[in-house]
Design a protein that fits this description.
By secondary structure, this protein is of the alpha/beta class. The protein folds into 2 domains: 196 residues, D-Maltodextrin-Binding Protein, domain 2 (3-Layer(aba) Sandwich), CATH 3.40.190.10; 91 residues, 3-Layer(aba) Sandwich (D-Maltodextrin-Binding Protein, domain 2). It has 14 helices and 12 strands. The chain has a 5-stranded mixed β-sheet, sandwiched between helices. Helix 6 links the parallel strand 6 and strand 7. The longest helix is centred in the N-terminal third of the chain and has 28 residues. It is globular. It starts with a helix and ends with a strand.
Length: 337
């Protein structure tokens, strides 16, 4: 009798045990699927400033960090930033000048990382037959600059450094696509340029091209910018973007020739030209105190020139979000916050 009862209990227990064993077996051979990648729309630039994004996309670093990155390409940062303001992109790459103008117009946006900086990203270019052997020769000349961008600030800094009053030159607003024609037709005696247009003009005009850099006048900084509300609601997405770009930065440092080739191929530049842009610290994630000082200076310049209304200079620390970079790489945050 006891033996029969024992067998009945064993039969009763066997069912659940078998189910548990089967569940463990199927879990091991078929682990649960991971969540789908997060979609993020990034408005990038057809410039070296988007180099880390190009390298990250080429090597699959965004996918590795669980992101479905969609890229928009723009020729100017002001257009990329406008895509964010219009809700057509989540994140934009733009220099500090378009960012400053957007903040002064009430844009509820924030920088959460700088991804590229260079002292030779901007230049003044002319032709040997225009009588401009040095920047001081710009007096009485017509100069093309793209208004609302860091090219305009750079030009003013160059004029000031050479003691040339604004009224002694004529400045015309030109789109990047109009630079070649402006020089060829004489609409402008000189133009402010950035890569890849700089290399394009050099290729067209050859030995006739004369170029002036302002290494000691201005450092271009290109930043990742998003609406503050987006960063508040999607902090992990922003962190993942920075993690992917950190991998791209490390790849570029370990494999410079491959990085030059990747960036050059996407921007239609020679690897040699890209290599010259890889000055120390150019392609790295950071947030530096000097960014705040530059934004303050640019705001005062914009007010003085009448580009924005006179008002108290914003506390730009309120327009930075350090949390994503702190989460991705705390040592990259070099700003008092």
């Amino acid at each position: 009798m006891r033996a029969k009862r024992a067998w009945r209990w064993l039969g009763f227990l066997a069912g659940p045990v078998v189910l548990i064993v089967l569940a463990i077996y199927f879990f091991l051979i078929s682990p649960p699927s991971s969540s789908p990648p997060e979609r993020v729309v990034i408005a990038t630039l057809i410039q070296p400033s988007s180099g880390l994004i190009i390298v990250a996309a080429e090597n699959g670093f965004f996918q590795d960090n669980g992101l479905d990155a969609v890229y928009q390409t723009h020729s100017l940062g002001v257009h990329a930033l406008q895509a964010v303001l219009n809700g057509k992109a989540d994140i934009a790459v733009a220099a500090d000048i378009p960012f400053m103008f957007a903040v002064m117009k009430g844009g509820d946006i924030a920088i959460f990382a700088t991804i590229y900086k260079s002292r030779r990203d901007l230049a003044l270019m002319t032709m040997s037959d225009r009588g401009i052997a040095a920047p001081k020769d710009l007096v009485g000349k017509t100069i093309g600059a793209t208004f609302g961008t860091n090219l305009q600030f750079f030009l003013d800094a160059m004029l000031m450094a050479n003691g040339i009053p604004e009224e002694k030159v004529t400045i015309v607003d030109l789109k990047p696509s109009e630079l070649v024609n402006a020089l060829q037709t004489g609409k402008a005696d000189a133009v402010t340029v950035f890569p890849p247009y700089m290399e394009e003009l050099q290729g067209i005009f050859g030995s006739r091209a004369v170029i002036f850099f302002g290494e000691d006048l201005y450092t271009s900084r290109y930043n990742l910018i998003a609406k503050r509300d987006y960063l508040k609601k999607h902090p992990d997405t922003a962190r993942k973007v920075l993690m992917a770009l950190r991998e791209a930065e490390q790849y570029a440092k370990k494999n410079p020739p491959q990085a030059y080739e990747i960036i050059g191929r996407h921007l239609k530049l020679k690897a040699h030209d890209v290599a010259e842009m890889f000055e120390s610290g150019a392609f790295e994630l950071t947030l530096e105190q000097s960014l705040l000082l530059t934004l303050d200076e640019e705001t005062r310049w914009a007010m003085k020139r009448g580009f924005v209304k006179m008002a108290p200079v914003p506390n730009y620390l309120d327009y930075l979000n350090v949390d994503p970079l702190l989460a991705a790489d705390p040592e990259a945050v070099k700003i008092i916050h």
